[in-house]
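Section handout 9: paired folding examples.
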Amino acid sequence: MTQKNLSRRDFLKRLGIGSAAVGAALSGCTGSDEKQQARRLPPTGKMTYRTTPTTGDRVSLLGYGCMRWPTRPVGKEEDNKDEIDQEQVNRLVDYAIEHGVNYFDTSPAYCQGRSEAATGIALARHPRDSYYIATKLSNFAPATWSREAGIHMFRESLRLLQTDYIDYLLLHAIGMTAQDAEGNELSGMEAFEARYMKNGLLDFLLAEREAGRIRNLGFSYHGDIEVFDRLLAEHDRYRWDFVQIQLNYVDWKYAKEINPRNTSGEYLYGELQKRGIPAVIMEPLLGGRLARVPEVVVPRMKALRPDDSVAAWAFRYAGTPEGVLTVLSGMTYMEHLQDNLLSYSPLEPCTPEELDMLADVAQIFVDNQFIPCTRCQYCMPCPYGVDIPSIFAHYNRCIDEGYYKHTSRDADYVRARRAYLVGYDRSVPRLRQASHCIGCGQCVPHCPQRINIPSEMTRIDNYVEKLKQNLDF
């Protein structure tokens, strides 16, 4: 059954939307750029909050994802090195807290291992009871699968975050496949057993929750649905306080159409709702792709809410279900933070008419050839210097904007061909383009979306070469 086959009442009930859904925002121009800019700044004291059932935490509906902190270059330009721009991080954190954000999500794996320290420095300047820290046990490599290594990683998180307890601790990316120390491929279930069960690490985390050094324990799900189902079936044993899932208006119904090994947001959210487990939402923008929807649908969005950005639609959708605790966004720039704050200060839940429109947008995405990359950077660094996320981002952006053409018989082929090639060279340095992928496959086990990265690199490189030669496919 699709969204269109459900009655509006049933669809709202399935999402868990209350009867107090608010209509469209006020529209109209102010008559001056200065007034319009002032109107777009988020208010203080208006953030929407949700409550964690087990601890009673009052959590901001907008959560700050600390995966993409701003950086600045260091050393020579050709060295291609950078560092976290701590001054900018502090400014973003201060602004977020001032406007009601109190949930900050980091990991030992984020920002090439630098996120926890930068997040800890910024947050330590504020009272500890004014924010919640979420971090993860990111024991992806076989060398970190021992009990001792896992305990060390947890204690390092406490040290770097400058705290003696973690508010929200996650088993990171359960369900992902992995390779063991001998290079053998492990299924999602086998990897989960090796990372958390056979070494007694999950028992350790449960004990830490009892001791108060972990206040809420959960997991983030990427991959094998068998693992997700097992952990929920054993909910009485583990008493999960929250679970982090991918949810957006495309993945709600069409996750499998985009990637056959993914699971629909409708199923994941529904299973959590059955057990009263709040959902933390990741990828509300589907790796940024829902911030740039196909041009054909933009007029429909503007007709309903003239003042909202395209991205705001995705954030309102993700925050509308009542079982959602917080929606994470990795906000590198102040304008992104301000725009997202507007979506949740306060939240105006999506109306039935708006849900119908977003279902149509989702169908358009399914009908195109997008690569389901979310720019999480887990595939990086590539040992051969290939900038995998940027290559995929440029490819997806060209589909969004109509610059992906297969034949000179297509309308606007010449303009589209030039736009793709020029944009490619501007977005990705030539030494880091798809032509330099040797197909080693080292990136594949690290991809939460389970993209066959070498295959996609070959396809994109072939496409680029044919564009350069002005050949039809």
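Moving on to protein 2 of 2.
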Amino acid sequence: MANLGPFSRLFGFLSHDIAIDLGTANTLVMVRGRGIVIIEPSIVAIDRTSKRILAIGEEAQRMVGRTPANIVAVRPLRDGVISDFEVTERMLSYFIRAVQDRSFLAQPRVVIGIPSGVTEVEKRAVHDAALSAGARSCFLIEEPLAAAIGSGLPVMEASGCMVVDIGGGTTEVAVISLGGMVVSRSIRVAGDEMDRSIVAYARQVHNLLIGERTAEEVKKLAGSASPLDTEESVTLRGRDQATGLPKAVDVSTIELRDALAGSVGQIVESVRSSIEVTPPELVSDLMAHGIALAGGGALLRGLDRRISQETRFPVYVSEDPLLCVVRGAGAIFDEIEASSTVEQQFDSGRARR
């Protein structure tokens, strides 16, 4: 990759540098020098008839489950990858333009966090969507590496550190040393799968139909991965499958933990299997430094304790886990300008032209 040079640096001053955590559940946008300016759901409301986009983000989320037949609220990303290129491009364009200051003349440079398990075709789709949305250039960084940087881990040192990034569509597990991922795993089990597990539990056990949005709220309120000091109960409200009438049932945190057991178990197993293939020299570092949890799924109560019990490693939740990926992606601009060598290192995920 060619050196950026003074001309490119001049354009950097004339435009915003933007970091984006393009998540299955939420999109976060950080503008260099201004901080995080957007945290909105990755949802788009579309008119089926005209194919016109009616709303994006929070406004579109309010329409979920409440729209007439001709309007559908969709997620253009599924399991961490683009399922609808055109809608994703429109959503990216909306967020990029929302943070652009008209006093800045050039198009922005953009860094986007992507799951480590995506294919070259999927990388190219994200890259091209950003350019089509108005970016001057686009750099891709794998989410586990961005999460590790955003968590403050010493990724450039000759010692191992481990991060588990639990998002909406994917869980990313990585062991990092000297700025690269020595071990990485990506499974398509994360927050969304937990929500679907609660929906299935309510239907199978209580004959109750609830939506994924309700399940997400219940998960945040009363979900857990290990026994709590004080077990509680929460009310589930939905529709009775038999009568079609409104119905409310009380479920305990113990029941919800059972409902989430399958998803949590797969996440724990991905961490265990990653440790099993980690070089012994790095394992000793992990035992000393611990495992950092990032992403919205890290907020599930007791998950750190459950992983610690299963792996016998110290485990902790990063500060502001929801923001780790976007903060790490934003930090890349400093590295890009500091050294073309570092730029190549961190830009290894960029789609090839």
